[in-house]
Amino acid sequence: GEAIPLTLLAPQTYVSQTASVYPTFAGFISSSNQIEFRLFEFESNNTVKQLGSPIEKQTQPGVFQLSLPENRPGLTVGKKYLWQIAIRCPDAAIVQRAEFRVVELPTEIKTRLSTPVNSSQKVDIYAGADFWYEAFTEALTLAQPGKMGQLGSSLVEDLVKSELEEDADKVRWLEEIVNRDK
Questions:
Q1: Which of 52, 82, 97, 110 sits 20 to 30 Å CA-CA off 6?
Q2: Interior/surface letters 126-150, b for 16+ CB within 10 angstroms, e for the rest
Q3: What does the alpha-carbon distance between residue 74 and residue 51 come to, in Å, rounded to a whole number?
Q4: Which CATH code fits 6-180?
Q5: CB burial of residue 35 (10 Å; 0-12, 13-18, 19+)
C-alpha cells in the first residue's frame, strides 16, 4: 500500500491533557516535506481562535517534533486547545488535528517525579496518569532522531488500541441508534 503522508502522534478520539504551557507536539511524515503548524484556543462558545501565526518547518521522513516557541505566550492552565499540522501535496493539502487541555500536574505525579527516576520510569508515570504529551516527549529522548524507539513505539501501540476501542464504541453506539430508529 501507499505510505500515509502525515500522522499525528497524539490522541485524536478524545481530548488529552498536558501539564506543559509550552508543550511538544509530534507526528510522522512519510517523505521530506514542509509542514505548517497552527495552534488554536477554544473560546467559551466552542469556537476556536488561532494563536499567533503559523510555524513552517522543513521535515525529513520519520518522526518529527515541534515545540511551542518560548518567545510566544505560554498556554493557559484550564483551557482547551487544538493543534493542526498541514502539508501540501501536488493535488491537495493534508490536514490533521488533535485537541488537548492544559492542566495542573497532580501533586501525586509531582511527588513521584521528584524522587530519582530514569526516563523509562518517567514515561510510565506520565502514561499511567494520561499525560500523553509528556510521556511521548520523554520516550523520544531515548530514541534516535526521526525514530520512535522502543518506548515510543509501545506508547503508540497502546494509543492505537485505545483509539480503535473508542471508534468501536462509536460504531456500536451508531448501530444501536440506527437499529432503534428503524
A1: 52
A2: bbebebbbbbbbbbbeeeeeeebee
A3: 11
A4: 2.60.40.1220
A5: buried
